[in-house]
Prior knowledge:
Layout: H1 4-12, E1 18-19, H2 20-27, H3 31-43, E2 47-54, E3 60-66, E4 68-76, E5 79-86, H4 90-99
Helix pairs in contact: 2-3
Amino acid sequence: MADDYAGKIMSATYGKAMSIQELSRNCEIPIAVAYRRVGKMEKIGLVKCVREEEAYRGKKVRYYMCAVDTLQLSFERGRFTVQVQPVTNLTYSLKEQATS
């Protein structure tokens, strides 16, 4: 998950919910790659689906936000360690966005 696409997705969705389509367009990521990457990132807890809307003929659009406040990767004495600080209140961040 340590690649340019994951970084772009996390930066774009930090404090702002975005759909896969928006991420693809705004971050210049191919749509298929965006779907796969967000799916993997959601599984490991880096992004979270914060809302779902019905779009067209029953199709749903999901909106994602970065679920990480701080992520540190260290390599020391031959071992990698990862420290993750989750966003403390993702719901609050979503409410802030709605009022902006």
